[in-house]
Specification:
Blueprint lengths: L1 H23 L5 H4 L26 E7 L9 E7 L6 H15 L10 E6 L2 E6 L10 E7 L5 E5 L14 E7 L1
Parallel strand pairs: 1-7
Antiparallel strand pairs: 1-2, 3-4, 5-6, 5-7
Length: 176
């Protein structure tokens, strides 16, 4: 029983130290800020915290599957994954698959796509679980940076050299 109370007390002490460090830190000092651990979502401003702290959110990559077309309604599925250094498109898809599977364990995971070779240097998405498609359906991969610049748009999957940045949106769009 004492061991359990000691662990809880230790957690409260660490949280208290963290809160004291956050409230006493000079918010304009980037050196101090990079050593502060913050949750990815910050709620209301607390007394003593500067508004600049709201900009300190963990960067995310948005991976979405758009099964909507002009002639049929399909699902629009969006999963936000935490960015990590040297993240590629394939890493983002794998992270989205894991996160979707944890959040929706009883639903077909659309991020477990089937891919086929269209030519020697081109692999295309041929099937997305949970999205109705036919033989004439194609999937377009579009990668857009945070400020709207399109860096990739094609039916073929890009090479692994495209790195993800915070705010990047990867869209798999179904076309007929």
């Amino acid at each position: 029983m004492n061991f359990h109370l000691d662990k809880i007390e230790c957690v409260f002490i660490l949280l208290n130290i963290l809160m004291v460090h956050i409230t006493s830190a000079n918010i304009s000092s980037s050196y101090k800020l990079k050593n502060i651990i913050l949750p990815p979502y910050i709620g209301k401003l607390q007394d003593g915290l500067d508004s600049k702290i709201l900009a300190l959110r963990k960067p995310y990559v948005h991976v979405q599957i758009d099964g909507r077309t002009d002639v049929s309604d399909g699902p629009l599925i969006r999963t936000d994954v935490a960015l990590f250094p040297d993240m590629t498109l394939y890493d983002a898809i794998a992270e989205a698959s894991v996160r979707f599977g944890v959040e929706h364990p009883c639903v077909q995971n659309p991020y477990r796509m089937e891919v086929a070779s269209a030519s020697s240097n081109c692999y295309t998405v041929i099937n997305v679980p949970g999205v109705v498609s036919n033989t004439s359906s194609r999937w377009i991969i579009k990668i857009v940076r945070r400020r709207g610049r399109i860096i990739y748009e094609d039916e073929c999957l890009p090479s692994g050299r495209i790195s993800m940045r915070g705010g990047t949106t990867v869209t798999f769009k179904k076309t007929n």
